[in-house]
Amino acid sequence: MQKIKINGGKRLSGKVTVSGAKNSVVALIPATILANDIVTLEGVPDISDVASLVEIMEIMGAVIERDVDGGKLVIDTRPVVSKPLPYGKINSLRASYYFNGALLARFGQATVGLPGGCDLGPRPIDLHIKAFEALGAEMSYQEEAMHLEKTGDQLNGASIYMDVVSVGATINTMLAAAAADGVTIIENAAREPEIIDVATLLNNMGAKVRGAGTDIIRITGTQDFHGASHTVIPDRIEAGTYLALAAAMGDGIVVDNVIYEHLEAFVAKLEEMGVRMTIREDSIEVHKSDNLKSVNIKAVPYPGFATDLQQPITPLLLLAEGKGWIMDTIYEKRVNHVPELARMGAEITAVGDRIHYGAPNKLTGNQVHATDLRAGACLVVAGAIASGSTVISNIEFILRGYDNIIEKMTALGADIQIIEED
Ligand SMILES: CC(=O)N[C@H]1[C@@H](OP(=O)(O)OP(=O)(O)OC[C@H]2O[C@@H](n3ccc(=O)[nH]c3=O)[C@H](O)[C@@H]2O)O[C@H](CO)[C@@H](O)[C@@H]1O
Ligand SMILES: C=C(OP(=O)(O)O)C(=O)O
């Protein structure tokens, strides 16, 4: 079994370049199905979610050239057919739900197994289904897969109010509505930068999506799609993870390829803690920071503090002076990193809807488990801080979302490697 071993306590310095955003690229790849043509994606991160999506696309007939090191994907979706995708890689990642919207848009039907992804407590997809039904599709289960089929000649535009702000449901509705007859209005839409990125590609492929990035998105359907080229936005969650690491262990680290506006809430929290930073046009330099103050964190939809950064920032909070709490309003049960940090000596507990921590803590290396992607990132940061050696198992979760994490951390001076161990 592969594990990550970190000999912690080393001060870090240098530059780390952020890769393309996981949560964009996992939607952009299925979105290329609408083009029925050749789409080039640049800035594609080398993560296992991308490899899984490429495999699924190839099963459906897409012809794909991938330059892993160059971060480039050239996808020809002309040969794609809407074949049932009940099992396999489909169940290994969350974003496989985007095949529902994309296949429904192009073929009027889709049979896709239930999505996997990180176990963060309940992750229903009722809003996706309601939106597809509002657009004129019927849903049934075939074996263990969800089968969607248009009931008329075409999907029809509709007014859709999202009861809960949902990234996945907003993007899936955009995908299906892009090819519907007439106008769709999504109200209470999610506003994450990844939604703007997907809308940009869709528009470059011929779609008419307006208002992405606000809570009202208006889509005028078309059947007139074509090829396009697109560069994936930088990964704000990867950036935030390295900013937290830099604040904890850096003697001056530049986090490059960053869109600061995507990280405002996160950077504001670092500033509140007393982290010193210089913000430049596309990079953030984190200076050596001492005497950090504890803060409380409430994870909420964008533009607020991101749930995906709640776990990676926790080890930094553990170094600050005083007590504090973290509350995740999106995933109340996103607390699996807590017992692992406690095994490393942290004063931290999850009670009710909050994580309570006392600080400062002296973390000590231990054998720990990455229960999900960002819990894994949290343990990598904690391992870099801790004295002694930390061995992290279940690293496949981490590799779902962090491009070349061993190489990037090593370049900063961390003593980190992948080992084989039972
Ligand atoms: C691949 C991807 O982009 N994953 C991200 C996406 O996940 P994902 O798109 O699955 O998350 P959502 O934004 O949909 O979830 C937000 C909240 O809405 C609820 N909900 C969602 C859909 C639904 O049909 N019904 C419902 O009740 C969820 O349980 C959750 O409480 O956004 C999350 C919230 O920013 C991030 O943590 C994930 O990294
Ligand atoms: C929860 C995450 O991913 P997914 O939705 O793909 O499981 C994440 O990126 O933190």
TrEMBL record:
GO cellular component, one term: cytoplasm
Active site: C118 (proton donor)
Reactions catalysed according to its record: phosphoenolpyruvate + UDP-N-acetyl-alpha-D-glucosamine = UDP-N-acetyl-3-O-(1-carboxyvinyl)-alpha-D-glucosamine + phosphate
Compartments it resides in: Cytoplasm
Binding site for UDP-N-acetyl-alpha-D-glucosamine: R94, R123, P124, I125, D126, L127, D308, I330
Family matches, as InterPro entries: Enolpyruvate_Tfrase_dom (IPR001986), Enolpyruvate_Tfrase_sf (IPR036968), MurA_subfamily (IPR050068), RNA3'P_cycl/enolpyr_Trfase_a/b (IPR013792), UDP_GlcNAc_COvinyl_MurA (IPR005750)
Main location per the UniProt record: cytoplasm
Enzyme Commission number: 2.5.1.7
Binding site residues for phosphoenolpyruvate: K22, N23
Gene Ontology BP terms: cell division; cell wall organization; peptidoglycan biosynthetic process; regulation of cell shape; UDP-N-acetylgalactosamine biosynthetic process
Domain Enolpyruvate transferase: 7-409
Keywords, in A-Z order: Cell cycle, Cell division, Cell shape, Cell wall biogenesis/degradation, Cytoplasm, Peptidoglycan synthesis, Pyruvate, Transferase
Pathway it works in: Cell wall biogenesis; peptidoglycan biosynthesis
Positions of post-translational 2-(S-cysteinyl)pyruvic acid O-phosphothioketal modification: C118
Gene3D superfamilies named among the record's database cross-references: Enolpyruvate transferase domain
Keyword match Cell wall biogenesis/degradation: yes
GO molecular function term, any single one: UDP-N-acetylglucosamine 1-carboxyvinyltransferase activity
Protein function: Cell wall formation. Adds enolpyruvyl to UDP-N-acetylglucosamine.
PANTHER family named in the record: UDP-N-ACETYLGLUCOSAMINE 1-CARBOXYVINYLTRANSFERASE (PTHR43783), UDP-N-ACETYLGLUCOSAMINE 1-CARBOXYVINYLTRANSFERASE 2 (PTHR43783:SF2)
HAMAP family on file: MurA
Similarity section: Belongs to the EPSP synthase family. MurA subfamily.
Protein name: UDP-N-acetylglucosamine 1-carboxyvinyltransferase
